[in-house]
Amino acid sequence: MSSGDAFGLTSTPDFLPGYHGSDGDKRYPSPRKLRSMGAVLIDLVLLFGPAFALGVLMVAVEMPRTNSYVLLPIPLAIIVGNWILLRKWVHATVGELIFGLVAIRGRDGAWPGWSELLSGRAPGHDGVPNIVRVRRCDIRGRGRESDR
Q: pTM value?
């Protein structure tokens, strides 16, 4: 790699960005900013919607306090299922599935493990995001290797 590649002054095929799925990464060429915003909107509705609906239901129906505690785990189960379990099994939340995105690890492009799923998109110790969203069509396959 030349010094021009390191500073982004040239566009040779040898230039690789800092992590998988970053802006300008030629390994994942499809645009995904608008798709990511739509996926986040759907996931936020799934995050706050069940809790809001449960609150409205409890006020409207006037359930006895002992029966209302039975319904409290429902929003928690939806949140854990969407943000953790679904991401582990199909590599995407409901919003990401609707918009054709998947979650990968930023450091090597592999599927995220339990530690990345629990820490979310926060940067790791090396400054690389743990989870990055990319288009499903840009993923080469389950056994893909890093291009580095």
A: 0.70
